[in-house]
């Protein structure tokens, strides 16, 4: 990769959320192994991002490479219409085993945003089949993020999601303020009462309530008490709304639990019964393939699937070209097997305590508003927006790959990261703030 390649990139290739008139600098990476990214100039960076929540096992993982090679030699892709194959069936079996009980009807989508599109269409088709065609709006929370295609974007935070630019194009849904911050902060009865009033106002026109449970990711890295999940479930039941959990970011152990939506291995949320927390529809993606290939899933209850099947359309109205891509499914199976065979709970707990310890000095800075940690997610919230290019130049000089957004600098490293690597990441953050 030489200077003219980079000039070509600057002129022709859009990167996520950038301008082609004045693009932010990009760093050429030539390979990645373990928790390290190799820069083209020979320097190595410790990865603090897991490539946006995905690479939970790190990079160049022998087990995932093997799964990919073996599947490529048999069949890289075949249409899923009228055909099935072992990688899809094997992945389905694994998901049924680890997802919250009762969520066992699976739609394999080709990205997180598409899985949210599918979840929203499921909810609309469900209400339609029940005889409520007027129930096609969605309720959601401010500060949420659900993807970049149109329907998911319409339920992203209206401000950070730039809804004013797309006014008239985006469908309009109803937003309520997010629960107060803090995993352990007590449930606020005023919030609960106001949310109940909000539901009562909109329910008659609404198909579903869609939220990221406990951790709002790209909308602000906001953590709230899991006790609110029971409130969401109760309000949805009272008003006949479906409850959709978007666990694309939180799924597969990132928060210290495999999933937040009730049930499943390692879930400690619900001593009084997982049903209190179980959504009707749930989306997973990102870490599903360990960061190797794009794949997501929309899972729902048998009841939702059955009602949709009895509706006017008679079928679930979606079917992407690359649905259930065999390469992606095979790697997802290997990634889930690797995760379940690993001491992931201990790894995440360990990362949490190290993040807490090594990010603590950042709280001393007058530029820092709050430092918070949940599972393998460490967040430093600044008072002012971060200058991304300037911050990244400092991080890279320190040997760290960290990409801030807005007022947030955050770390969510692969679960396999060791203590010196994690310390290096935290030191880079502390140095910057
Ligand atoms: C990343 C993300 C999405 C979108 O997934 P893509 O694969 O980028 O389309 C949706 N919801 C949440 C919570 C996410 O973190």
Strand content: 15-25%
The neighbouring-strand order within the major sheet is 4-12-11-10-7-5-6
> What is the CATH domain class of the largest domain?
Alpha Beta
Which second-level CATH architecture of the largest domain applies? Answer: 3-Layer(aba) Sandwich
What is the count of helical runs? 13
Cα-to-Cα separation, first versus last residue: 32 Å
Ligands, ions, cofactors:
pyridoxal-5'-phosphate
Number of β-strand runs: 16
Report the average pLDDT across residues: 95
Annotation keywords:
binds pyridoxal-5'-phosphate; Aspartate Aminotransferase, domain 1; 13 helices; biotin biosynthesis; alpha/beta; seven-stranded mixed beta sheet; globular; four-stranded mixed beta sheet; 433 residues; Aspartate Aminotransferase, domain 2; PyrdxlP-dep_Trfase_small; transferase
Summarize the structure in words.
Belongs to the class-III pyridoxal-phosphate-dependent aminotransferase family. BioA subfamily. The chain is built from 13 helices and 16 strands. It is globular. It has 433 residues and is α/β, with parallel strands linked by helices. It has two domains: 148 residues, Aspartate Aminotransferase, domain 1; 267 residues, Type I PLP-dependent aspartate aminotransferase-like (Major domain) (Aspartate Aminotransferase, domain 2), CATH 3.40.640.10. The strands form four sheets. It has a seven-stranded mixed sheet with strand order 4-12-11-10-7-5-6, with helices on both faces. The protein has a four-stranded mixed sheet with strand order 1-2-3-15. It has a three-stranded antiparallel sheet with strand order 13-14-16. Helices cover 36% and strands 16% of the residues. About 2% of the residues have low confidence. The site of pyridoxal-5'-phosphate has 15 residues, from helix 5.
């Amino acid at each position: 990769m030489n200077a003219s390649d980079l000039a070509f990139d600057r002129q022709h290739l859009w990167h996520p959320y950038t301008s082609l008139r004045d693009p932010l600098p990009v760093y050429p990476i030539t390979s990645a192994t373990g928790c390290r990214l190799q820069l083209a100039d020979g320097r190595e960076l410790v990865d603090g991002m897991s490539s946006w929540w995905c690479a939970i096992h790190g990079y160049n993982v022998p087990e995932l490479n093997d799964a990919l090679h073996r599947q490529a030699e048999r069949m890289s892709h075949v249409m899923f219409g009228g055909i099935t194959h072992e990688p899809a069936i094997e992945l389905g079996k694994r998901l049924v085993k680890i997802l919250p009980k009762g969520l066992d009807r699976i739609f394999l989508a080709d990205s997180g945003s598409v899985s949210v599109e599918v979840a929203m269409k499921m909810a609309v088709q469900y209400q339609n089949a029940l005889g409520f065609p007027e129930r096609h709006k969605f309720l959601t929370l401010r500060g949420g993020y659900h993807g970049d295609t149109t329907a998911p974007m319409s339920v992203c935070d209206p401000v950070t999601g730039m809804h004013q630019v797309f006014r008239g194009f985006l469908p309009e849904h109803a937003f309520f303020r997010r629960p107060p911050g803090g995993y352990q902060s007590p449930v606020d009865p005023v919030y609960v009462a106001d949310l109940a009033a909000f539901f009562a106002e909109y329910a008659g026109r609404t198909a579903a309530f869609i939220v990221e449970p406990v951790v709002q990711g790209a909308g602000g890295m906001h953590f709230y008490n899991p006790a609110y999940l029971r409130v969401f479930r109760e309000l949805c039941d009272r008003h006949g709304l479906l409850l959709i959990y978007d666990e694309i970011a939180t799924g597969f152990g990132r928060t210290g639990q495999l999933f937040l939506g009730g049930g499943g291995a390692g879930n400690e949320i619900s001593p009084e019964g997982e049903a209190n927390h179980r959504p009707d529809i749930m989306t997973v993606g990102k870490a599903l393939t360990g960061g190797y290939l794009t794949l997501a899933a929309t899972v729902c209850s048998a009841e939702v699937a059955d009602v949709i099947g009895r509706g006017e359309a008679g079928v679930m109205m979606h079917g992407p070209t690359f649905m259930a891509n065999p390469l992606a499914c095979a790697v997802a199976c290997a990634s889930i097997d690797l995760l379940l065979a690993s001491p992931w709970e201990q790894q995440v707990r360990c990362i949490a305590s190290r993040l807490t310890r090594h990010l603590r000095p950042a709280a001393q800075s007058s530029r820092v508003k709050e430092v918070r940690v949940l599972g393998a997610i460490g967040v430093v919230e600044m008072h002012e927006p971060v200058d991304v290019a300037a911050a990244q130049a400092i991080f890279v000089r320190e040997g760290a790959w960290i990409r801030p957004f807005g007022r947030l600098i955050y770390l969510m490293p692969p679960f396999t990261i060791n203590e010196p690597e994690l310390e290096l990441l935290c030191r880079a953050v502390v140095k910057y703030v």
